[in-house]
Structure formats: structure tokens, C-alpha cells
Amino acid sequence: MIENKYSRLYHRIVASAQNRTVLEGYSELHHIIPKSLGGTDSKSNLVRVTTREHYILHYLLTKFTEGPDFRKMVAAFNMMNCSSFRHQRYMNSRLYDANRKHMSETMRVNQSGAKNSQFGKIWMTNMITGTSKTFDK
Question: How far apart are CA 90 and CA 82, in angstroms?
Fold first, then answer.
């Protein structure tokens, strides 16, 4: 991880949330050190944050990680932008643009080489029925 203004802001938000006595309304648990970066589910690695803080924390994680860790954090932040019946998320155009560029690069790296789940396969779609099927090359 890189030490920069984003990592310092990340740690300030986490410290503020840890020192909060009561959090009113809906909140979410955040892994201070993400599980994909070696963090655990231990109480000392979890902090209760507002949904806005949670979103910002995941965005900040993309700003001070690099290499494979950066790609993991981009994928996690991308998932923060998925809406569901419980969560309606908003993303402004700048965040969307930056995240899509990072996610595209992440997918290019993750889907290259023999470790790729689609390696050696071809996808074909029946344009009439709309069904897709995979075939080995």
C-alpha cells in the first residue's frame, strides 16, 4: 500500500468511526484491512460506518493500492456501485468514468493467460433465441 493523502484520509475516517459512540440509522460493517488483502473478520478489523462512509472508504482503497491489490480494490469498488432491492446507489460521472477505466484494465489483466476461466473457449450466441453457449477451441 502507498502512503499518500488518500491513505491518510482513509485512516482518519476509520478512526473517526471507531471513536463514535452511537451511529443513528442504517449502517454497514467495513473491513479495515479488506479480506482480499489479508484482513480477517476479527472485531478489531471491523468498523461500523454510514453507507456514505463505506462507499468513500472503498473508493479511497483504490487510490492507495497498486498491482494485484489495486485490481482487487477496483473490483470491490465496482460492486459498491451495484444496486439491489435494499440499496440504491448513486455514482457521479467522474467516479463512473474512473471506475470503468480501472475495471476495464482489471478485467484485461485478470482474464489474460491460462489462469483465465475462459481460456481456450469460444462463446457463441444464437441471435434468434438469444441463448449463449461455450465451446472448447
Answer: 9
Output the pTM of the full model: 0.65
- Predicted confidence pLDDT, tens digits, the chain (137 residues): 889 999 999 999 999 999 998 888 778 899 999 999 999 999 999 999 988 888 899 999 999 999 999 999 988 888 876 666 666 666 676 776 777 777 777 777 777 777 777 777 888 888 888 888 888 87
Which amino acid makes up residue 11? H
User: To which H or E segment does residue 46 belong?
Assistant: strand 46-49
- How far, in Å, CA of 99 to CA of 93, rounded? 10
Residue 5 cell numbers, joined: 493523502
C-alpha span between 39 and 59 (Å, rounded): 18
How many CB atoms neighbour CB 134 within 10 A?
9
| DSSP assignment letter at 61 | H
By C-alpha distance, which of 10, 57, 54 is closest to 28? 54
Residue 2, SS3 per DSSP: coil
